[in-house]
């Protein structure tokens, strides 16, 4: 039989403490996001459909992206217990420099369209977090302005090879003059992929006003106010363009580029060279034999060839083929710190994240990008501790199986 008594006020007080009031709506939104998927939900709610779909979507049936995420979700970790993990070091070396976390910010185009704070917000977070940031050729902030926004950041410049080679040379020289330490050459876009969400949404830059976009504006007034009251939205490294993005890509990019053109790139750029978009063991060997310092195993986030190889699945074979030579980075489908750890265990030297930080940007500007880094960093640290490892170097294929 339970004996009841009258509760003492002193016992009730700890149970009735009110939660501190957070007056910032942005802060409340971000504090409630515990995962990158949560940030994605907030981003979807706060951003016009065509803009969100541009970030979130992939090519054709979006099979490549789905397979990549399914692969991460389906892997199995193998933890070692009774290990001293009182202190876990998440730092590593990327392209010869220290990175406080084993991932970098991938290059993404149209960033100010997703949220008006754009590339400067992202590079400032990278500077604070001590990780590299790659600025896209299709960026909406100039090479020089990004450098001024975060002079202490490790900055890389991503280049697409244009039909007009002189324009590419000019961009490389500007990046070198502004202190960008590495060039990321993207090689998986000879032509634009068929991104059907964008076609159905009539996606263009600048955004075109249609009946649908006017209705969307009514549902997302803050986004439109920010767009219309800040600097005009344009490609910082290109001449002005008015029309569908796929048409722009096809008009600019050179589908005749071959391996021999790496010599041309090297004749202009003498810093570290990263080749992004590698999807086979043979190509990994070809570009490293041709002088690449690092490769990115990537199918462009599923945005180019649908049914392309899943980067995580080919990673062990590429690692075995390259040995301890060129650095291997990996992207596509990365939505958590656990995904990052799995890629490291399977042979990647580091990981690139793109959509993850863009969801944060759309959810809450610079604060949202910082929240994304905080989430990913905490997940990396926790996953490493639960696996029984204290440093990135201790991760091995024995810690995970596909």
UniProtKB/TrEMBL annotation:
Classification via CDD domains: alpha_hydroxyacid_oxid_FMN (cd02809)
Keyword flag Nucleus: no
Annotated binding of glyoxylate, by residue: 54, 160, 195, 300, 303
Annotated residues for binding of FMN: 107-109, 136, 158, 186, 276, 298, 354-355
Family matches, as InterPro entries: Aldolase_TIM, Alpha-hydoxy_acid_DH_FMN, FMN-dep_DH, FMN_HAD, FMN_hydac_DH_AS
Catalytic residues in the record: 300
Domain FMN hydroxy acid dehydrogenase residues, every copy: 28-402
Protein name: Lactate dehydrogenase
Protein's organism: Knoellia aerolata DSM 18566
GO molecular function, one term: FMN binding
Pfam families: FMN_dh
